[in-house]
Amino acid sequence: MRKTLAAALSLFIVISAACTGGGESGSILYSDVWAGRAGGDTFAFQFFREGSDGCPGVIHCLRDGKKYSEVPMGGVEWSPPDISIFVDATGVTYSGSMEDGVIRGGISSRDALPVSMDLVRTCPDSLPGLAALDGEYVYSPPESTGDGIPVGSCQEAGISRETAEELVSRIAAGESGVIHSILVFSGGRLVLEEYFHGYSMEDLHRLASCTKSVSSLLVGAAMDRGLIESVTAPLTVYFPGADSSLELRHLLTMSMGLDWTDEEAEYVHGTGPGMFDRILAREAACPPGGEFRYVNADVNLLSGIILQATGSFPDEFAKETLFDPLGIEVWDWDYGETEGHRMMDGSLRMRPRDMGRIGLLVLEQGLREGERVISREWISESTSPHLPVDGLFSYGYLWWLTSIPADGGEQRVILASGWGSQFIAVIPEADIVVVTTGGNDDNGRNWDVLRLVREVLFQEPGAGPPSL
Fold first, then answer.
1. Same domain, yes or no: 166 and 60
2. Is the same domain home to 198 and 219?
3. By CB distance 3.0 to 4.6 Å, which of 16, 39, 344, 402 could disulfide with 215?
4. 268 and 231 in one domain?
């Protein structure tokens, strides 16, 4: 789920309008950042004289000492003392006038009441969370906290200190946009763990669509217990009004074939009995199982299926069968809850270390410290390719699948992917799990961190595809 304020600020993005103005009267605009507050958040406007790709600036979004997102400015009109940042298509404008070192103005729209927001010239160092890290990065092994996660050093895992420092330093320099954490597990041990922009190991982070892959594990737990008979079970078992041709596997492989527009497929969310009826009332656009089409809403049917199959809502079943066995003690799945049903497509929040436990479970084929949590058969089946997506990816049961080059062939990558740079990447042949969290929702940089990991950690310079 994207944060409301970040989505609102994305209205500032424009396609045209060049950055103009100059001279001594205009130079102050490019000094420090210009910070304003709205809705309890701080928005720091940073203007560029010559932005890369013509970008005239960026809006940093800060809350409670953390930078949660950033929004690029597509264009600025600057005729001192007046400034405008606007979107022609929506009629949204930020307009202000500089007076005594303050830009006094606000946001206006044809669809909403104006909102005042003055911008004050501010030293970046005075804004907690704006900088990724304090000072130059020097590698140190992760802290052993007694949480049951073994730790070690990069050197013990065959990763040089120089490689670790290059990876983290380039993230801190902004090469991957807004990244909140990166964790690397090798040989079952946590060997790299760094947090950025004010985030820490104790912060719950939204998983976004990584929630879907956790939902897949819950289906496996139900099947292991004989509560769901088969992935070929017709949905009519759980929803009598469903089309008789729809089966559970069609939901798990994003191939239900229901008629959603592209906008609906991306932005419609929701759960609960009313939402289930709304989903299943859709006409068929193509036969189920025929082709992959990513639709968020369809996945929420799993909440109804899990409740009917197990007698428990998904959060209760997850605690019993997955979170408690893995040692995951702190998590939240309340956003969007409706009549006890959880949103299976993207509202789970979890700590990054616990995201790593999910990755290690998949890496170890369903085992945790030698104890069986999920059957090997389900891990294998759910992370095997069932439908092609494009030239880079195929799809399992709510897991993305790709590969990276390796000596003598390729290495598989099993990927839980959530928009904004939330990733759990499992590379079985390398015995590695990589976890990232981030705030790249609205800046076009969702995939950049995986490109950087591939280039630095896996020594693939110039890797272009949006995968590891």
1. no
2. no
3. 344
4. yes
